[in-house]
Amino acid sequence: MPKTHLYFVPGLAANTKIFERISLPEEHFELHFLDWLIPTSINETIQEYAQRLCAKIQHKNSILIGVSFGGIMVQEMSKIIDCKKVIIISSIKSNKELPKRLRLAQLTKAYKLFPSKVIANIENYEHYFFNDYLKKRAELYKIYLSIRDKDYLQWAIYNVLHWQQKEPLKDITHIHGKKDEVFPIKYIKNSIEIENGTHVMILNKAKTISKILEKECFLMD
Q1: Distance between CA atoms of 27 and 55, rounded to whole angstroms?
Q2: Mean pLDDT of 157-164
Q3: What is the pTM of this model?
């Protein structure tokens, strides 16, 4: 029986290490991980960017899986190539699922104040992390948020806030944490909810997510 090919796209600024705890039966699935590309310019459209990522898909009728901004990206990719299924995690299916504070950030252009320099040079700011919790967060950022190009960060934030998808695409499987602090569950419709799942549950709820992915992928065969 041929294997099903799964292509994973990480969250904004994240690298593919965020998927290292995802475990699926090797006899049935082959996992592929797509790294973020640097935008050709700050004005590259999300459609143009998706086209460049699609060029890295080497198998027909694959399953596309994206986390957070990666979830937005795989939805855009599904408009370009034929895929068996799209699964998003800790993400949104349309701009109607953006929380009010992010809509406000878009309207006021407050996103331009986002401290991309801090992420780009987080080692230089470590002495500002006073308590153990913040220090641990800083360590996580260094491990998992390694895409620190300033143009990429500004481009990605702009495209999250200005995504033009007004209605959800058909047949999207959406896995979402009930304690997601970035995209609160109260704005999310038609999702598989995970108890105590936060926006970074791909790291600490990987076992639960793996079981859901396995079930959803088998349902399509």
Answers
A1: 26
A2: 92
A3: 0.87
> What is the spatial distance between Cα 107 and Cα 116, in angstroms, rounded to a whole number?
19
3-state helix, strand, coil in the chain (%, to 5): 45, 15, 40
Tell me, what amino acid is at 99? P
13: left (phi over 0), alpha (psi -120 to 50) or beta: left
Label residues 34-70 b or e (16+ Cβ within 10 Å = b): bebeebeeeebebeebbbebbeebeeeebbbbbbbbb
Is residue 99 within 8 Å of 188, Cβ to Cβ? Answer: no
pLDDT at 129 over 50: no
Does residue 25 contact residue 208 with C-beta atoms inside 8 Å?
Answer: no
* 71 CB burial (10 A radius; 0-12, 13-18, 19+): buried
7-39: pLDDT as tens digits: 999 998 889 999 999 999 999 999 999 999 999
DSSP string covering 166-208, please? -SPPTTEEEEEETT-SSS-GGG--S-EEETT--TTHHHHSHHH
Average pLDDT over residues 46-59: 97
